[in-house]
Amino acid sequence: MKNINKPGKTLLWSAVTIFSFAAFFISASATAQQSEIKRTLLQQHDLNIPGKEAIQATIDFGAHTAFGKHSHPGEEIIYVLKGTLEYEVEGSKPVTLKAGEVLFIPAGTVHSAKNKTNENAVELATYVVEKGKQLVVMKK
User: Fold this and answer.
1) Is 42 helix (H, G, I), strand (E, B) or coil?
2) What's the rounded Cα separation, in Å, for the pair 128 and 80?
3) Neighbours of 12 (CB within 10 A)
4) Which tens digit of pLDDT belongs to each residue from 70-92?
């Protein structure tokens, strides 16, 4: 009787199986990372107004991502740098902005942002906020 479980074939099969699973998880991880939202702080400075500071950041939205309802302890000025984003601002109808368009969000106003497209989108957010307070306050 022949031994069909030859060590060389078993080792090769194990290596192929492990490689296949690794490739799948690396691919899935890369896809998940591409669809995340990433905030990059550009600058943060005290203002001449006591207790206030200005913060500027870019927010990268992967395809089909959303940043849930939240508010800020001050005003937010948005400039869409790339792609298309839909904003829902408390007390207003949803608005869709394309690259080059702007939005002003008053202090403490609950809002959210969504990228409903297959492409990445990026906004430049400028905040004029109370110094020392949490920049993003998530809402239910």
Assistant:
1) strand
2) 18
3) 11
4) 999 999 999 999 999 999 999 99
